[in-house]
Design brief:
By secondary structure, the protein is an alpha/beta fold. It has two domains: 2-134, no CATH class; 141-335, no CATH class. It contains 14 helices and twelve strands. The strands form five sheets. Strands 2-6-3-8 form a four-stranded mixed sheet. Strand 11 (296-297) and strand 12 (300-301) form a beta hairpin. Helix 2 (33-42) packs across helix 3 (91-103) and helix 5 (141-147) crosses helix 7 (188-199). The longest helix is centred in the middle third of the chain and has 18 residues, at 206-223. The model has no long low-confidence stretch (mean pLDDT 90). Pfam families: DndB. It comes from Streptomyces avermitilis (strain ATCC 31267 / DSM 46492 / JCM 5070 / NBRC 14893 / NCIMB 12804 / NRRL 8165 / MA-4680). This is DNA modification (ATPase).
Length: 339
């Protein structure tokens, strides 16, 4: 275990402007650091980091406490003061720790686990990096939402899947993609991003937010009869997803953004619900050529930021809403054939 205050001082990261074949690590992505540092600062009592992995370029000596039994596995690791410590895995954690310490030096007495390897050269360090990351798989966003008890939007989204008849039993809670034969209509991650865009900038307490999101999606549901047909077993989930796009992540995200605009303009529930009625006139079928280049690219639904914006623009026009300057720019580029 190593005190955090020592991490930036003794653990080096290969940050020189060297070509990839001469480095033992990938280039540091500085854009990740503020969020990682904020995570430490916002959760000083229960943040969780996995161990750093470091190579020691120097002679190490381990002195065990005893010769027999388990005692021989416990002792002191002696490393020369002039030894060089190179981070093999955890360079972003190291940099985030350094950033957090600048804002809150008291964190310096906290500790983090470190696994030491003897440095036997660049080839070995590169192989360690490859081995450590070879089988690393980022978990699906849905299961991250399911297990996240800090994120308010995750809590709201989970509550919605339990309380709303629209979503209860029809949301895939672990995977972020649905197989062709899945009986689910939505993924938890898609609903999460839909709620995130819906509540953007609205200062609401958790109970208020849950009530509002449930009311909003129920209003949307009345304009999309196919959702109710699946619940009533008149249409299978597979058929609905195959023939329509309104249960896909891009549609939920776009509907959330449009809903956010309505909520900002119309505080009263009856007013913004009334303005959602024109959604019944939208042709949500995949065969609608209007979706090509907006929500569908090359026959596949696209969730890129630009395609979400183009889908939002399409819905805004149906609801009689003005486009923002950024939305207008994206729309103009699309109409010129540049999108």
């Amino acid at each position: 275990m190593c005190p955090l205050r020592l991490i930036p001082k003794i653990f080096l990261f290969d940050e020189d402007d060297l070509s990839a074949e001469l480095r033992a690590q990938r280039v540091l992505n500085k854009g990740r650091l503020p969020a990682l540092a904020r995570y430490i600062l916002d959760n000083p009592d229960d943040y969780v980091f996995s161990a750093l992995t470091a190579s020691v370029d120097g002679d190490m000596a381990f002195e065990c406490q005893g010769a027999e039994g388990s005692a021989h596995r416990t002792g002191q690791l002696r490393i020369p003061m002039d030894a060089r410590f190179l981070i093999n895995d955890g360079q972003h954690r190291r940099a985030a720790i350094e950033l957090a310490l600048k804002e809150k030096p008291d964190l310096g007495d906290e500790t983090i686990a470190v696994v030491f390897f003897h440095d036997t050269g660049l080839s070995r360090s590169q192989q360690m990096f490859a081995d450590l990351n070879r089988h690393a798989v980022r978990p699906a966003r849905s299961i991250g939402v399911l297990y996240d008890h800090r994120d308010l939007n995750a809590q709201i989204t989970r509550a919605l899947t339990e309380r709303s008849a629209i979503f209860k039993g029809f949301v895939e809670m672990e995977k972020s993609t649905l197989s062709a034969r899945s009986r689910k209509l939505f993924t938890l991650s898609a609903l999460y991003y839909g709620n995130q865009s819906l509540l953007q900038g609205l200062d609401l307490k958790q109970d208020e937010a849950i009530k509002l999101t449930q009311s909003f999606w129920e209003a949307v549901d009345t304009a999309l009869p196919e959702w109710a047909m699946v619940r009533g077993k008149q249409l299978s989930a597979q058929e609905m997803r195959r023939d329509f796009i309104h249960s896909h992540g891009i549609a939920l995200h776009a509907l959330g953004r449009v809903g956010n605009a309505l909520l900002r303009e119309s505080v009263k529930e009856a007013a913004w619900k009334r303005r959602l009625v024109p959604l019944t006139d939208v042709d949500w079928t995949r065969g609608n050529i209007d979706w090509e280049g907006r929500a569908i690219v090359g026959g596949r639904v696209s969730k890129s930021h630009q395609n979400v914006t183009l889908t939002v623009n399409y819905l805004r026009k149906h609801l009689g809403l003005e486009l923002s300057p950024e939305e207008r720019r994206v729309e103009d580029a699309y109409l010129r054939g540049e999108a």
